[in-house]
Amino acid sequence: MKVIAAHWTSTRGWSFDAPEGLFEPDWILYFGATARLEMPNGPARELCSRFPKALCCGCSTSGEILGDHVSDDTVVAALVQFSSTRVQAVAAQVAKPELSHAAAQALAGQLRAPDLCHVLVLSEGLQVNGTTLIAGFRDALPASVTVTGGLAGDGTRFGQTFTGLGDQIRSGQVVAVGFYGRQLHVGYGTEGGWEAFGPRRLITKSQGNVLFELDSQPALDLYKKYLGERASGLPATGLLFPLQLLASATAANGLVRTILAVDEQQQSLTFAGDMPQGQYARLMKAGQDGLVHGAEQAASAAAGGGQLAVLVSCVGRRLVLGQRVEEELEAVRKALPPGGVSVGFYSYGEICPPTGLRNCELHNQTMTITTFTET
Q: Hey, which residues does 180 pair with through a beta bridge?
């Protein structure tokens, strides 16, 4: 397995970290700014046309990661040549959140094969229900097949996200990449570093990923009281204060959920994943040191051979870290084996099994890392 990193900027175009020469990648994975991906003859399509034999896929971001640096208005990529691993990708349109589960099942069905070992999912970031999307993959794939990935981003605008497969770069699309063979080892890890605070509130009215009431009070009104002056910046400022979803009033741990949209008329909050009625929610906050430590833990859990590491970190983490954002990337680099290529993006949601488990979940506000090594 050979991996070359590439970076596109508006001033230099594409640059590669090694001479292209006779290198013929089997798989190209790219992450880029929304404005660059939606260009008819933009850098992503240029890269794919330069290597017509490669399977080329990617998504839009809230910041592009290459090594331990983050950039905006660029495109980053990993070009991968396998020795024996086979790779295949499929895509489906998701017109509305209710179709997420069926779309995932259809994609998984197209990828299923006896030697399928892993699926990487790059999903539309706003029009899907991440919880049911992941459930669809879990329901349709054998337990032996792991699933990781992320939801595409659009900065802090929450306007439109894109995913691409070949020359089909579209909004509302889910791309699933299947990896086949016994020589590929895939590692993964996901950690947050957030701290819950305040009372646990019962979810008294919700529908899928839309939350209407907490403790029989309008959810948006209650949430705004916590945010104070920051409420005027919703939904973007909601990234600073996600909610912890708890299965019971006494549960010690839960999933983190990020706000994607607000509805003033219905006084509701829309999240990247489900907020089931009868469960509990609690506000969360984070310090910069906690987020950096969480990223380091994720890298330690994922570390294997690590010829390629795919990093998916939440845009909310980037906002909290501010000018210290590259510290979490430096912590990841130090925890991973030297010599590998790291690419990734800041997202609207992360897909990964909880550390130590195999069944994938939708996470928010985490650093999620997938490592690929061919032996």
A: 86, 116
CA distance 241 to 253: 17
Domain range enclosing 252: 195-285
Helix ranges, the chain (H): 34-37, 43-50, 100-111, 130-140, 219-227, 288-302, 315-321, 325-335
Whether residue 144 contacts residue 118, with contact meaning beta carbons closer than 8 Å, is answered with: no
Pair (337, 248) in one structural domain: no
Taking alpha carbons only, the member of 352, 364, 359, 351 closest to residue 319 is 364
Residues 329, 225, single domain; the answer is no
C-alpha span between 37 and 287 (Å, rounded): 33
* CB of 120 closer than 8 Å to CB of 177: yes
- What's the whole-model pTM score? 0.90
- Sequence-ordered list of residues with C-beta below 8 angstroms from that of 173, at least 6 positions apart, any chain: 91, 92, 93, 94, 124, 162, 163, 164, 165
Nearest Cα to Cα of residue 369 among 295, 279, 260: 295
Q: Tell me the per-residue pLDDT of 255-285, one tens digit each, with 9 for 90 and over.
A: 899 888 999 999 999 998 899 999 999 999 8
**Strand pairing report for 255-257 and 259-263:** unpaired
